[in-house]
Amino acid sequence: MQPQTTHRGVLSIAGYDPSGGGGILADTKTFEQIGSYGCGIITAVTYQNDIECNGVKWLPLQEINKQFDALKSRFDFQFAKIGLVQDANMLKDCIEMLKNYNPGIKIIWDPVMKASAGFEFGNVFSFNDIKPLLKDIYLVTPNINEMQRIFPAPNAEEAAAEVSMYSNVLLKGGHKEGNQAVDILFHKRRTTGFVSDKIMGTDKRGTGCVLSAAITAYLDSGEPLEDACNKAKKYTLNYIKSAERLLGFHANHINILA
Description:
The protein has 258 residues and is of the alpha/beta class. It has one domain: UDP-N-acetylmuramoyl-L-alanine:D-glutamate ligase (3-Layer(aba) Sandwich). The chain contains nine helices and nine strands. Strands 3-2-1-4-5-6-7-8-9 form a nine-stranded mixed sheet, sandwiched between helices.
């Protein structure tokens, strides 16, 4: 007889970055700092440190399912983040796995296609491939470059507006030129901007992972989507400020956000 579920958790389905700057390790650090218990399912092993990525090994669906089978007998997941996956078919399989477990689960998808160090994972997503999946995704969190790779358009804002007809979209603006980073949430046929000054000279690994994980954790704590995005941006800014190197720290960030 299987034991009854005893724990509320937040789930990350993502790649393993051994440096801890992104992927599963960054996600679970973020979850815990915000107050959620983080669990992780590895989709890929990457070979990287803080300055370079030399390759990736993808895990088959069978291995991903085995990881989830062990977790779902003991944890209650209402929110899950999906990060690095091999292709649109694997994204579909992960969504189906989660929805079969809990039809009401809210899924946040961070479409990782390139490592911070510049390595291309080769997992291109076309809009035609992901369009049928968007109805089951609560929020997509692409940066400007990822948005235009998914949905070619004259600019990323137009692409995000089109995708937002099927799912909420947070378009991350950190890659845009200028002194300010403006993230735009496309939600319920309206837009909300989250503005911050860029922190010059303090590049960080894994900021996209941290931001999407923080949104997931704040949603799990009961925050509405706009507030979760706003607080997650503040959390990520504090992560960026935490050290003058490529890898940041998570400890005590939550105290700064009070």
